[in-house]
Amino acid sequence: MNTGAVDQIENEIRVWSFQNFGNGIALGISRFMGKLFFALLVFLIGRYCIRKLISFLPKSRICEKINPTVRPFAIKAIRFVLYFFLGMSCISIMGIPMASLITVLASAGVAVGLAMQGSLSNLAGGIMLLLFRPFQVHDYIKSGSDEGTVQEVSVFYTIILSPDNKKISIPNGNLMNSNIINYSSEALRRVDLTFSVAREEDPERVEKALKAAVEGDNRILHKPEPFFGISEVKNDALNFAIRVWVESKRYWDVYNTLNKRVILEFYREKITIPNTKLKSLASSTEESEALEQPKRIEQSK
Question: How far apart are CA 93 and CA 79, in angstroms?
Fold first, then answer.
């Protein structure tokens, strides 16, 4: 076989190889684009179904049976699980090996966990709050310097509404590790009020005035029995205490009403309230000048 024939055969083989290589790339791209399009279609349909399901869950009878405190957390957990399986399905459709993906996700999870230790502690705190339930939604609580009505217990934060209508977000980790005072957990609460009168007043007369201010209020319970009496004796005053039991939902109404009634009863019975001595700025300035004047005279001498 001559050299020209050999060169021709080599050229034909080379052209055939390039053609097959190009055809393989085109076929691979077309297959990948087909899988990508199908995975995208599955994702869009799945996302639409998940959104419809999540919007329907709060209105369903099954969700109404779940505790209001756990309900938002459960709905978010269901949404996360559904999106997780949807994402795994789309990745499987695209032909990505699951073993390699799980390895990458595990490595990334360790790195993210180390970088988000505070957030993970809040997540753990949220789970503990839902398990032990020291409070419920719509309970009035106090933790540290924050207090208000619980609106929602989310994954990382507990949201409360303060009495002056401010929304406060407390990290679940901090909330779980601090003292929590729940004012709404019990059906009854005790209203404690303290009033000061002059030392010269007759204690029995003051007690009668306190009882007169409380009598006739149907919101105040007779059992446990109300208390009226001296709580503290000072040099210039006597402190009297009122302790009455009411339903928790009526606490603030009774608290404010009794304060007003007792003061009006004191005025009616002419019971003296200790005077508070106040010094004006002018008088304090005059006193300081009077003290400084002898020093100036001595210095001049």
Answer: 21
